Amino acid sequence: MPKWSKEIAIGFFPVMFVFLAFIGVDVLPILIAAIIVGGLLFFAKNKGGIAVGSGRTPKRKKTAPSKLTFEEIGGQDNAKQELREALDFLIRHEEIKKFGIRPLKGILLTGPPGTGKTLMAKAAAHYTNSVFVGASGSEFVEMYVGVGAGRIRNLFKDARARAAKENKQSAIIFIDEIDVIGGKREGGQQREYDQTLNQLLTEMDGIFTTDTPRILVIAATNRKEMLDSALLRPGRFDRHIQVDLPDKKGRTHILRLHAANKPLSEDVDLEKIAEEAYGFSGAQLESVMNEAAIYTMRENEGRIQQRHLSMAIDKVMMGERSDRESNFEEKKRVAIHELGHAIIAELVRPGSVKQVALSPRGKALGYVRHNPQQEQYLYTKSFLEEQIMITLGGAAAEEIYYGGRSTGSSNDFEQSLHIVETMMKSGLTSLGIINMNMVTTEELMRENNLILEDLMNRTKHLLEQNHAIFDNSLDILMREEILSGEQFRCQFRENALLPA
After folding, report:
1. Is the pLDDT of residue 59 over 60?
2. Would you give the distance in Å from CA 416 to the centre of its chain?
């Protein structure tokens, strides 16, 4: 419609109403109707809503192209290298034709939450100079039939249209949490999720790698085992790239990246912090740097100190300090419980305890801070049994001193049961090499109880042998509320149990 049509309408309708009134026509009902219709049209245009069950997709906000590069993503060297190799098929399109190589249609990024899967997808778009169109699996889920499938179609259509508009040779479609729509299909009546998955499979089959713009689908999940086999086969998601938790080198790199815009003290040792942050994801490490800066600002200091970073690790791991105050008896029980963990840890792994504290954090009324662990990916039966004994130490100490347990051991028992399950799956129990689905629940429970009862008895025996250390450490902990690892080991040396 020409731009001047609005001006004509604005001038015509008032003149028409004046003319009708002049010749004696009652214009009031017409005027009221016109106002109502105009108001409804204005509301419908500006609300941006969609008719219920219509299957139309809300307009996706156009975001500026991502400028994130692989160099700005800490750690994950192997995953980044594997992803780059896969992306080269998209960039060197003419070259791979000579070898008859079929370009990839899909890449699946799998791994724990917070490891940088979304960041890697954005960096992939920058690396290939592609349009980036992102969506979450939950965006396609609605109770109305056909809505999810329609949105999948529009997602691919939008990617092609944007690539053509921006004169790009390729487009990357990123679907986060793909397990929401890509779960294994069950027999019987089709669900809305199944229709959405079917549409995604159809769209991926319809990707012709010789066409321009070329489309590459990147998806992310932390539950790969739940995905449908049709989605995982070659020709759809051709490459599966594991994005694991970073090792010490990767954690140090991530900390340095996030420390770039923060005032660090000269004596801060980020490698030591990376050791203490064993098992942290990239997102948790970013939070450590952020929380350390908050502690520094809270104390009105100009630079982040090493202690601020250590405090931040505690905060991210266990939560903020609580203002809850326990009565004397509850405080003593907590101290006995934590010392049970600490004594067993020091006996089976000398030098492992860094601090025992009674200060409440998160839901915990006390905690044991362990020294940095070495990077380890394989575990022996004896190592796992020692780990179970450490987790049972708190409950064992309560039984020795009070004759019973408290609810404070519930999380310890969950950890113990998980470790026992790992041992069973790995063939490290008397059941031998088994398929967990082929063993009855009664057999599993019997073996579980035998393992835990034996380790609980061994744990109690060790604690009873070291009751002098227990009593002396309890006095210090109740008085000072914090027992350092060195103070703790002094108790052992005085009893000639550990070398000086």
Report:
1. no
2. 23
Closest among 316, 336, 339 to 326, alpha carbons compared = 336
Model confidence at 190: pLDDT above 80:
no
Is it the case that residue 45 has pLDDT exceeding 80?
Answer: no
pLDDT, mean of residues 335-355:
91
Q: Which residues contact 236 (CB under 8 A, 6 or more apart)?
A: 105, 106, 201, 204, 205, 230
Tokens 């051991």 map to which residue?
A: 409
pLDDT band of 385, cuts 50, 70, 90:
very high
Walk across the sheet containing 367-370 and list its strands.
Answer: 367-370, 353-357, 482-484
φ/ψ bin of 300: left (φ > 0), alpha (ψ from -120 to 50), beta (otherwise)? left
Picking from 98, 109, 97, 137, the residue whose alpha carbon sits closest to that of residue 238 is 109
**Gap between the terminal Cα atoms of the chain:** 90
Helical spans, DSSP H, in 98-168: 117-128, 147-165
Q: What was the pLDDT predicted at 425?
A: 92
Quote the distance between the C-alpha of residue 345 and its chain's center. Answer: 29
Integer CA distances (angstroms), 18 to 28, 31, 491, in order: 11, 11, 102
Q: Is the peptide bond before 112 cis (omega within 30 degrees of 0)?
A: no
Alpha-carbon distance of 287 to 278, in angstroms, equals 14
State which amino acid sits at residue 447: E
Main-chain phi, psi angles of 368, to 5 degrees: -115, 125
pTM of the model: 0.70
- Is residue 370 scored above 90 in pLDDT? no
Instruction: Please report which helix (H) or strand (E) contains residue 389, including its range.
Output: helix 381-402
What are the contacts of 328-332 at 24+ separation with CB within 8 A? 330/365, 331/358, 331/365, 331/478, 332/474, 332/478
Who wins on pLDDT, 348 or 20? 348
Residues annotated as part of the active site: 338
Rg (alpha carbons) of the chain, rounded to whole number? 31
